[in-house]
Amino acid sequence: MKIILSTLNSKFIHSCLAVRYLQGCVKDLIDVDIKEYTINQNIDFIASDLYKLEPDIIGFSTYIWNLKETLNICKILKMVNPKLKIILGGPEVSFDGEKVLAENKFIDFIIYGEGEETFREFIKSIIDNEDYTNIQGLIYSQGNIVIKNPPRPLIEDLNIIPSPYKNVGDEFKNKIVYFESSRGCPFGCKFCLSSTIKGVRYFGIDRVKEELGNLIDGQVRQVKFVDRTFNANKKYAMEIMNFIIDKNPKDINFHFEVTAHLLDKEMLDFLSGVKEGLFQFEIGVQSTNLDTIEAIGRTTDFEKLRDITKKIKSYENIHQHLDLIAGLPYEGYDSFKKSFNDVYEIKPEKIQLGFLKLLKGSELRIDEVKYGFKYLDMPPYEVLENDFIKYSEIIKLKTIEDLVERYYNEGYFEHSLEYIINNYYTNPFDFYEEFSYYWELKDYHRVSNSRNKLYEIFMEFYKYKEFGDGLIFNELLKFDFIKNNKGSKAPKGILNFEGNIQQRDIHEILKDEKVIENYLGEYKGLPTKRIIQDIVIESFGIDVFKVIENGYSLIDNKYKIDILFVYQNGVINRCNAYNISHITKELV
After folding, report:
1. How much is the pLDDT for 497?
2. Burial track 64-91 (b if 16+ CB lie within 10 A, e otherwise)
3. Is 551 helix (H, G, I), strand (E, B) or coil?
């Protein structure tokens, strides 16, 4: 008997944790192969690839991003091999499995809820030629009748689940690996499926350390913890983070979803010393409207969240992603604007603008009539409008979200953005809103735009608005470009200026001991041709640093300065910039 477990990941770089759990649960009974694909691959190719393997049983892990494609693949496989037994599991079939079976006759079984023990019992029943009537958590058909067995209780001791990361090898090298140290959440947010399961259960700390050690040795790119609230247990969380720090992994990032108001002084002091880029935090804000927060059952304290996230930002070592959700109850367009401005003021590394999805089994989906939610009952179940926000306003927010992603979230326009918002707009949202009108006016939303093109468009917008003195904006945009685009060709429309420092002059500058001692100490003793690979020296028509120090206010004192850019491999600190005019005046 040949068994295959499969799924369609959202990207090639991702890996699926669920199918590996299931594989481990039956390894003493039978060998199971894992075949992973992505939603970007051709459906016919995936179906034919699986067909050639001649499985007797095939199981798919289903999620919001892959259900439609998975069902199409299953339909093809059943047509060409009617004897094939097909199983579905995962969150996308756990809440309406009977309906899925009734509407898709080519599916034979559905495992709902936590699937590890159910899958093991199911496979054992197949091997022993027994029936399924006593298998909890299983849905199946008998003729035209769909039978749903009683639900399976949650696994009390998570350590009985075989580890999926015992023998890693190079299977996950340079990939994103999803990792669990706990299941459940102490909070009850009504848009989240975790709220349907009460309590938090933890894997043993020794197991967690062993698995993380194996993944670090396996040179994964990122370990993404899927724990709903990683820091719910402070002692447990700090022991994991301390373990990671002690291992001192190279070029690996660890992503955690944390609740900011649970971060106390001890943990903040601890986080201040973490190596830059090692940790990445995702922090859910969702809204700053108190009526909205109450309606969705969220526990939060935005004032405390703001203070804590600003504190962490000051450390310049942890990438913070703050989440907002449009389409929530009582959050109209103007209310969302306020929530956006509240979060923008914190200046996190990323602002993630999401749109409410009425997930199967979530409380908000149950209350859809109460709030007038309109949405398509197919993945991703995204709200189109409700009693508080119109579809036309959601569309506007979609374009704004796109611009925030392009212009804010990577930090490539930090200073030019601050200048234009501080001098010409009452608040950040007004800028992005007006920029979005221009973006669509020029049809930039219809085409793919390179990063260089984004700089050109930004300059076009500034000129289109006739904001005034273009020199300051030009030089700040130039500063942003050079700082964040090592070795890239200058965009059109900016960087057109006189008095560039010539290559021969740069060589002379780098031979000056004061430059090496004060700015390039780590390059001491290296030849100039090596140093020049990591630096740029450029002239500017204004004192860029003075503009930044003065809160991006307009300045009258416009005189040329020379800036040394030193590139590095930091996640947050990608480049250091220094005013070296006092040195260049003597040498050039």
Report:
1. 53
2. bbbbebbbebbbbbbeebeebbbbbbbb
3. coil
